[in-house]
Amino acid sequence: MDYHKFRTHLLRLIDGLVESFTPLVPAMSEPDAAIVLGGYSWFRQEFEVDVLQYSQSEGRFVNQSIPHGPGWLGKIAWAGDQAKVARASLKELLVRKYSRDVLEKKRDHPARYAWEPLEVIRDMLRDPARADTIGGAPQLAVVAQHLNSAYLGIRWPSDESPVYLRGRPLLPYERVDSVDLSPDSMKINRPR
Predict the structure, then answer these.
(1) List of residues 6+ apart from 4 with CB closer than 8 A
(2) Alpha-carbon gap, residue 116 to 165, rounded angstroms
(3) Helix or strand holding residue 38 (H, E)
């Protein structure tokens, strides 16, 4: 199933769930939720990123496609009450690392991020002023165009910390096949 058909199916599924739960939970009549969805479209031969959000005027969830990222970099989406701060922080970090040109130049083919989006998330998660709405270890996944995906572990909250995978710490006896990332050095470590 191509990404766009899957997105349409997912929107219908979410709307159906909201409709079925509304009689039981009245607050579900106007959900305050946003979902970042991404994947590869074989028909368009490109990665797609959308934010699925409830539209009060339409009375259902709708998608907002992300056509491009800042300047000539790839697509990226942020959701939640910290999204504006994350967007601004990413632009500031990109300008600091590469100059203002990174936000102004246009290319036919977008360049790739290094780890800048993760750096923004890492710094926001470490900021005690933001701890009331975000927290915990980042959850990382890599998605390839050939229907391959993998979760990455992360040492959290620093390079010397235990490995977290999918948001939870690995137990001492667990052995996994996934690599993990050190959040300060952005170094990839072999599976343990």
Answers:
(1) 41, 43, 44, 48
(2) 20
(3) strand 34-41
- Phi then psi for residue 18, to 5 deg, are -60, -45
pLDDT in tens, 1-45: 999 999 999 999 999 999 999 888 888 888 888 999 999 999 999
The pair of three-digit structure tokens given for residue 192, joined into one six-digit string: 């343990």
The token duo for 134 is: 């975000």
Q: What are phi and psi of 27, to 5 degrees?
A: -65, -20
Break the chain into its structural domains and give their ranges. 1-67, 81-135, 136-192
Q: What is the tens place of the pLDDT at every residue in 62-71?
A: 999 999 888 7
CA pair distance 142, 148, nearest whole angstrom: 8
